[in-house]
Amino acid sequence: EPEVTQTPSHQVTQMGQEVILRCVPISNHLYFYWYRQILGQKVEFLVSFYNNEISEKSEIFDDQFSVERPDGSNFTLKIRSTKLEDSAMYFCASSVTGANGHEQYFGPGTRLTVT
Amino acid sequence: GENVEQHPSTLSVQEGDSAVIKCTYSDSASNYFPWYKQELGKGPQLIIDIRSNVGEKKDQRIAVTLNKTAKHFSLHITETQPEDSAVYFCAALSPGRRALTFGSGTRLQVQP
Q1: Which residues in A18-55 are b (16+ Cβ under 10 Å) and which e?
Q2: Would the CB atoms of B43 and A91 count as touching at under 8 Å?
Q3: Of B49, B99, B103, the CB nearest to A58
């Protein structure tokens, strides 16, 4: 069964450093998403991406964040200058378009620790 | 924006018993309600969903009910098994949007 994959599984970085989190969505999916989950809190939406542009973003997704689809398979989240409060689990998700386009399938996540 | 409340935060049942998890939402226009199961060290796995034009949906031992008037929906797991132990999240989606709004999660423990 196709799955969303994410790398790395755990990333440790120092405050102020740039990080790139990588995702490979399910191959026939056209919508891509990033969510995050701070320890003990709800899963929060960051951004959705379709047709090579951001289709929706939350207040959390400020100028420090960017997303990119650098090739036909990868989808990345970049945090330009990490802060302590960026420490969280980051989940990538993907969905098809059309009638079943609501169904979002999540990857296993990347645990980001900012020290 | 949408707000989703989920109860209980923890639930312990004996193997074979039923488990019920409840969620309420604030945006009456929300029209899609998925449930996710998250096992330790894994991402959320979509287990069942319901759209606003349907009141109930079943898939083997799991079912979801939706009450649009009261703006609440529930997950029902019958004949629970130890492998059902996990954290369960409800979510809601407003029309025209792609951002799922999640509940805070319920940790279900099924005692053998």
Answers
A1: ebebbbbbbeebebbbbbbbeeeebbbbbbbbbeeeee
A2: yes
A3: B99
